[in-house]
Design a protein that fits this description.
- It contains nine helices and five strands.
- The protein is of the alpha+beta class.
- It has two domains: 94 residues, Ribosomal Protein S4 Delta 41, Chain A, domain 1; 92 residues, RNA-binding S4 domain (Structural Genomics Hypothetical 15.5 Kd Protein In mrcA-pckA Intergenic Region, Chain A).
- Strand 1 and strand 2 form a beta hairpin.
- Helix 3 packs across helix 9 and helix 4 packs across helix 5.
- The protein starts with 7 loop residues before the first helix and ends with a helix.
Length: 202
């Protein structure tokens, strides 16, 4: 499956946020890419602002355009506030929940763990990062993968009470997807209404 593999620090600096996870470059260079970030700033158009927000969401959750558009269409057809439903769909992805549970340090690392068959859902191996979890489902580390160094390091000292829609059982290394998150509980700095406005123009 195609994934963004370009310069992540450059993208993070563009948005001024560590959207791919902790970034040493971002802390050292807190200005946009370019000649010391001093290029003449063009005033963004309404379309430009909306497009930027969509790009931020795509990069944050590691979703490419076609998949993102399909998710938006499903959100639009469902009950509820379209932008909020879209974020709930993104948060329900298996790779994102693995990241939220602290099993992996970044979403990219979570995708790799899922793809390499280290993660189980309700006891069965699932190797599809975009797999959509339903409330009540259990996500855990495969028995023979529990000793992986990357998993141990990620879980070490991780605060599992950060996200009220999931709970973690350290003894079994299993998390439960309790319910869809409320918008106020999702920490990502994404203005989803701008994305709705952008796609509404097409």
């Amino acid at each position: 499956m195609a994934r963004y593999t370009g310069p992540k620090s450059k993208i993070a600096r563009k948005f001024g946020e560590p959207i791919f996870g902790p970034d040493k470059v971002l802390s050292k260079k807190n200005y946009p890419p370019g000649q010391h970030g001093n290029g003449r700033k063009k005033k963004s158009s309404e379309y430009g602002i909306q497009l930027r927000e969509k790009q931020k969401a795509k990069y944050t959750y590691g979703v490419l355009e076609r998949q993102f558009r399909n998710m938006f269409d499903r959100a639009l057809a469902s009950r509820g506030i379209t932008g909020e439903v879209l974020l709930q769909m993104l948060e329900s992805r298996l790779d994102n929940v693995v990241f939220r549970l602290g099993i992996a340090p970044t979403r990219a690392a979570a995708r790799q763990l899922v793809s390499h068959r280290h993660i189980v859902v309700d006891g069965s191996v699932v190797n599809i990062p975009s797999y959509s979890l339903k409330p009540g489902q259990l996500v855990g580390v495969r028995e023979k993968s529990k000793s992986l160094e990357v998993v141990g390091e990620a879980l070490s000292g991780f605060n599992h009470s950060k996200y009220p829609w999931i709970e973690w059982d350290q003894a079994t290394m299993t998390g439960k997807f309790l319910h869809l998150p409320e918008r106020a509980d999702i920490p990502e700095n994404i203005k989803e209404q701008l994305i709705v406005e952008l796609y509404s123009k097409n």
